[in-house]
Design goal:
Elements lengths: L2 H23 L3 H14 L6 H14 L6 E3 L4 H9 L1 E4 L2 E6 L4 E7 L4 H5 L6 E5 L2 E2 L5 H8 L6 E7 L7 E6 L1 E4 L3 E2 L2 E2 L5 E2 L8 E6 L6 H10 L10 E5 L8 H9 L6 E6 L5 E6 L12 E5 L6 H11 L4 E4 L7 E8 L4 E11 L32 H20 L45 H14 L1
Parallel strand pairs: 13-14, 14-17, 17-18
Antiparallel strand pairs: 1-20, 2-9, 3-4, 5-6, 5-7, 7-8, 10-13, 11-12, 15-16, 15-20, 19-20
Helix pairs in contact: 8-9
Length: 461
């Protein structure tokens, strides 16, 4: 028998053995494949086998827990962008204009491509690379606007102050997704990390925990000067933060602790997998009073931070009881990095050795989530929360555009920390281009933030 034939037979035997061992580990694999084949061959309508496969994957993972997810190829880029905190685009915030049946630019973000190209707030996008946008959905238009970094996208827009449509060639760049924000922007589009009415109180919002969150936080803390000498207290706002990377949550805690356990993770059978401890590299002095604001939407890494700083008595927790997500997920890449499986593999435990995960059927009296410190629970209604969120978004965008604080083109005002930011051209607002709904409105009284301010002012005195 030729040597080549012997080699083929040998490889076939090895392949059969591998298949046998795989099937022996899960006896249902063969049945699943058989069912899929039967559907493809005999179902009354033609069925795409890829659609069946993804349906099976979703159904299987959904049987586990709400945080384990299968991400198909078409959703993988968006998933990766959220983790990496960047995406290729031009830097605009858009909304659907019901009257025009097209996208309307709510705000071009300062310093980014669309802003530099001259696009303005209120511009109606008529075409994207020659594609008419009428009645196209937001996802459809977003897909057309995005593209490879360094490539160009041509936008045709209608501007109220112009008789004819305007065309702009915009070069796509990596657009950073901010995870750390302040109270408001200065005229240069930079965050001011102190409260407008209380300039000696620091205010930092963390809206998600991604790859660059820790670096963003440390950069914000540096604005307070050496030893945070420019502030008397700090408010760390984690309300509405759904979490993100465990490592980012650990890094945030590490910025405020000089020693001790931050969080530990335990796998199957409650066996400890890792114990994350502080390294002692403080970003602010231990004497600086800190308040952490949380609500029922603060979850995962947000809870790690709140629980850790509470257990070490490094911060006072104010607001509402947190969500209660005490599980950790690991991402496994599938199909040659074309799809992904996010699988719960551990639970995390706070320094006081408690598991804060809210399990199915848990009662309010059970010990889950992170509760505010004694006497610091401030409950707000769903309606007020929505009003505060809308007002906050408008405030952020209005100050970016200079609508509520209009600067001149050459103005270089000082920010709340006494520093002069670099001057950048700021387009003057044309009254005809401003939607009355977008003009700055006073933010409703925020009871939770108000309590935090009162607490820190008492500490100061």
């Amino acid at each position: 028998m030729p040597l080549r034939n012997i080699a083929v037979i040998f490889l076939a035997m090895i392949g059969a053995l591998v298949c046998y061992r795989t099937a022996s580990r899960n006896r249902h694999v063969g049945t699943l494949a058989q069912a899929m084949n039967l559907v493809v061959e005999h179902y009354v309508d033609e069925v795409d086998d890829r659609q069946l496969f993804e349906g099976a994957m979703v159904g299987m993972i959904d049987k586990l827990d709400s945080n384990s997810k299968y991400t198909p190829p078409e959703d993988l880029p968006q998933f990766q962008e959220a983790i990496d905190q960047e995406f290729p685009g031009i830097g605009i915030i858009v909304e659907f204009d019901n009257e025009a049946k097209r996208l309307r630019i709510k705000s071009p973000i300062p310093k980014l491509p669309a802003f530099r190209a001259g696009l303005k707030r209120g511009d109606i996008i008529l075409q994207i690379d020659g594609h008419d946008t009428e009645n196209k959905s937001l996802p459809e238009c977003t897909k057309l606007i995005r593209g490879p970094e360094g490539s160009k996208v041509k936008l045709q827009v209608r501007r109220k102050s112009e008789k004819e449509p305007l065309s702009f060639d915009v070069v796509r760049e990596k657009i950073p997704i901010e995870s750390v924000k302040g109270d408001r922007h200065n005229a240069a589009g930079e965050w001011i990390y102190t409260l407008q009415d209380h300039p000696r109180l620091g205010y930092i919002r963390i809206i998600t925990f991604g790859e660059r969150t820790v670096d963003e936080l440390k950069a914000a803390l540096e604005k307070f000067g050496p030893g945070a000498q420019q502030i008397d207290g700090l408010i760390l706002d984690l309300r509405g933060n759904p979490g993100g990377l465990l490592t980012a949550g650990v890094g945030v805690c590490d910025a405020f602790l000089d020693e001790g356990l931050i969080v530990s993770t335990r796998g199957r059978g409650k066996v400890e997998l890792e114990a994350h401890k502080a390294h002692g590299d403080l970003s602010v002095p231990k004497s600086l009073p800190i308040v952490v604001l949380v609500d029922s939407y603060s979850a995962s890494a947000s809870e790690i931070v709140a629980a850790c700083l509470q257990d070490h008595q490094r911060a006072t927790i104010i607001g509402q009881r947190t969500y209660g997500k005490g599980t950790v997920q690991k991402v496994y890449m599938l199909e040659g990095n074309k799809s992904a499986l996010r699988l719960t593999f551990a639970t995390y435990w706070r320094p006081n050795n408690k598991d804060i995960h809210k399990r199915k059927g848990a009662k309010d009296s059970d010990d889950w989530g992170v509760r505010p410190d004694a006497g610091q629970e401030v409950v707000i209604s769903k309606e007020l929360r929505e009003q505060l969120l809308e007002a906050r978004l408008n405030r952020d965008l209005d100050v970016i555009d200079g609508v509520s604080e209009p600067p001149t083109k050459t103005e270089t005002p000082k920010d709340g920390n006494g520093e002069k930011p670099p001057a950048i051209p700021v387009p003057e607002a044309d009254p005809d281009e401003i939607n009355p709904a977008d003009v700055a409105k006073p933010i409703p009284v925020d009871p939770q933030l108000k309590r935090a301010v009162e607490f820190l002012l008492v500490k100061k005195s």
